[in-house]
Amino acid sequence: MNTGIQRTSTTPLGAWTNTDPVGEEFHGKSQASKDMPMIMLAHNIPYVATATIAYLEDFAQKLTKATRVKDGMSYIHLLSPCPTGWRAAPDRSIELSRLAVETNYFPLWEAENGQLRLTVEIPNPKPVKEYLKTMGRFAHLTEDDFNKIQELVDSKLNKIRHLALMSSQTATVAKTRSARY
């Protein structure tokens, strides 16, 4: 959240903020959020990752890798709830962070020198609606809104999986070529 609970380009679709109010005319933020980690990946940042306070071991490993980068910058996109802006109880921060991952709303991945991989796989994800309903900033959403957001979440995860698969195939080809020479 921005100071004063203002919207940013990374504010999620449908979220209430002080600058994207909810009422008869307005329904929260009307655009999907920018995917900053993917933007950083597209800029060839040597180490890019997503992390959350609910998966501390994953976060710690990513911090260690990020500090080892010597030629360029590292970028870790951290999900850490803002109880005031999210309209959620402070003691639910870990639960909210975990649920964001368990619904694939916030997939955990990393990319080292462009080689992307998921670091936490969710075999049976919960519907994204379970995550969104835990916060007052999404209390106004309709079933159609939840379905639209679920489609966005599924599409984003499919892109990440596709990039991870391509990274894996590229790494395999590179190993095969280096073994020949």
Description of the molecule:
The chain has helices at residues 36-42, 56-68, 83-86, 93-102, 128-132, 143-180, and strands at 47-52, 74-79, 109-112, 115-118. It has one domain: Rossmann fold. The protein is α+β, with helices and mostly antiparallel strands. The mean pLDDT is 91. It starts with 35 loop residues before the first helix and ends with a helix. The protein is 43% helix and 11% strand. Strand 3 and strand 4 (115-118) form a beta hairpin.
Brief sketch in words of this structure:
By secondary structure, the protein is α+β, with helices and mostly antiparallel strands. The chain is 43% helix and 11% strand.
List its traits.
4-stranded mixed sheet; alpha+beta; 11% strand; 4 strands
Give the tally of β-strands.
4
**How would you name the CATH homologous superfamily?**
Thiamin diphosphate (ThDP)-binding fold, Pyr/PP domains
Give the strand line-up of the largest sheet. Answer: 2-1-3-4
* Low-pLDDT segments, ≥5 res: none
Shape: globular
Supply the number of structural domains: 1
List the total number of helices.
6
Using the coordinates above, name the CATH class: Alpha Beta
Main sheet properties: 4 strands, mixed
- Alpha-beta content class: alpha+beta
Question: What amount of the residues lies in strands?
Answer: 5-15%
End-to-end separation in angstroms reads 52 Å
CATH topology: Rossmann fold
Q: Report the CATH architecture.
A: 3-Layer(aba) Sandwich
In helices, the fraction of residues equals: 40-55%
Mean of residue pLDDT? 91
State Rg.
18 Å
